[in-house]
Specification:
Blueprint: E1 9-11, E2 14-16, E3 20-22, H1 38-46, E4 52-59, H2 76-91, E5 96-101, E6 118-119, E7 129-132, E8 135-138, E9 143-144, H3 150-166, E10 171-176, H4 181-186, H5 201-218, E11 224-228, H6 242-253, E12 260-263, H7 280-286, E13 291-294, H8 299-307, E14 313-316, H9 318-322, H10 326-332
Parallel strand pairs: 3-4, 3-14, 4-5, 5-10, 6-9, 10-11, 11-12, 12-13, 13-14
Antiparallel strand pairs: 1-2, 7-8
Helix pairs in contact: 1-2, 3-5, 5-6
Bound molecules: flavin mononucleotide (FMN).
Flavin mononucleotide is lined by residues 23-26, 56-57, 99, 175, 177-178, 227, 264, 268-269, 294-297, 316-319, 345.
Length: 361
């Protein structure tokens, strides 16, 4: 039977050749100073048959780095490296967005030149450790950003978007999920501010809203996506008023005419269990533009979500690591290779577990 997942879809002015996206995934194969490598160009080109390739979380400033080997979007050599990636994907007829990102409290001073990590409030990420060049360390108590520092955060995202545009990306995805800085501002668990950026759902949305505004000065609004994780527990997240916050956020994002809203609705990355998970159908009811689902989808459940009208696209993460030809496999009903060994997910600079997966045909 013809699969709706394989049908073309229009997001903004872009015609995508199918409804399958490569989910953004940090793979720590960049140079130590954040420059994307030829190996990364090969990896993304291998997966260019996706309707949309979303390149991994990319730091928008030298203070926005959380792992060794993650790429940046703030220096000339980053621009040169990313140009090779976008050229390689475009040469295969693909479409590629860059995920622009700031970790907020989810980094360590060892990784950011000894500076104390920043966040909406001085609340530490508990129950997990971070990898640093000095080994695993607990997260530190972050410093609450001063009101007068917030414009510089917005400016960092603008700088990231400008670099992405210069490097040939077709658009950008603003990372406001998984407990990183913009999610920390959205959620009451991590945002205890009493100024214009905290308290009400409106105030907690303010930073993301300002970032969307500035990024849409760089790219047309329909070339900008936003990622949210309303159900996630990753990075010690989960707030009792999640449904109110994320419903309001989706409603307000309608003002822009974005390329898409990317919702991590599935529970495959853990669920905060504070109430019923938010579903794509709930987001569909309040968000007018293209909707992308993610987390734990199989080709079958993804097809169902599209057929039910709950989503326009589905992003695949782990299945795309070990199946570079995921699109062809779905088209041919070819069984998927088993999940890649997680010990290779973040192994710096090696092709093993990165570009060495066999294709089925
Ligand atoms: C190795 C790895 C790295 C990831 N890095 C990112 C990232 O950079 N940005 C992001 O938003 N999500 C990241 N994620 C989450 C994925 O985008 C996706 O949400 C998750 O893998 C669930 O989808 P899946 O079940 O299809 O794998 C990462 C996941 C994995 C496995």
């Amino acid at each position: 039977m013809a699969k709706q997942l394989l049908e073309p879809v229009k997001i903004g002015d872009l015609q995508l050749r199918n409804r399958i996206a490569l989910a953004p995934m940090t793979r720590t194969r960049a140079e130590a100073d954040g420059a994307p490598t030829d190996l990364m160009a090969e990896y993304y080109a291998q997966r260019a048959a996706a309707g949309l390739v979303i390149a991994e979380a990319t730091g928008v400033d030298i203070s926005a780095i959380a792992w060794m080997g993650m790429p940046g979007a703030y220096r000339d050599d980053h621009l040169v490296g990313w140009q090779k990636v976008t050229d390689a994907v475009h040469a295969k007829g693909g479409t590629i967005f860059l995920q622009i990102w700031h970790p907020g409290r989810a980094t360590h001073s060892v990784l950011i030149n000894g500076q104390q990590p920043v966040a909406p409030s001085a609340i530490r990420l508990e129950n997990s450790e971070t990898h640093t060049p000095e080994g695993k360390k607990p997260y530190e108590v972050p410093r609450a950003l001063n009101l007068d520092e917030i414009p510089s955060i917005v400016a960092m995202f603008k700088q990231g978007a400008e670099l992405a545009k210069a490097a040939g990306f077709d658009g950008v995805e603003i990372h406001s999920a998984n407990g990183y800085l913009l999610d920390q501002f959205l959620q009451s668990k991590t945002n205890h501010r009493t100024d214009a950026y905290g308290g009400s759902v409106e105030n907690r949305l303010r930073l993301l809203d300002e970032v969307v505004q500035t990024v849409t000065d760089v790219f047309p609004t329909n070339r900008v996506g936003v990622r949210l994780s309303p159900n996630g527990v990753f990075d010690d997240m989960g707030s009792p008023d999640y449904r109110e916050q994320f419903t309001y956020t989706a409603q307000q994002l309608n003002r822009y005419g974005l390329a898409y809203l990317h919702v991590m609705d599935g529970l495959a990355f853990g669920f905060h269990e504070l109430g019923d998970p938010m579903t794509l159908a709930e987001f569909r009811a309040v968000f007018d533009g293209p909707l992308m689902g993610n987390c734990g989808y199989t080709p079958e459940t993804a097809e169902q979500a599209i057929a039910d009208g709950h989503a326009d696209l589905i992003a695949f993460g782990r299945p795309f690591i070990s199946n570079p030809d995921l699109v062809e496999r779905i088209a041919g009903d070819i069984p998927l290779s088993p999940e890649a060994d997680p010990s290779t997910w973040y192994s710096s600079s090696t092709a093993e577990g990165y570009t060495d997966f066999a294709t089925a045909t």
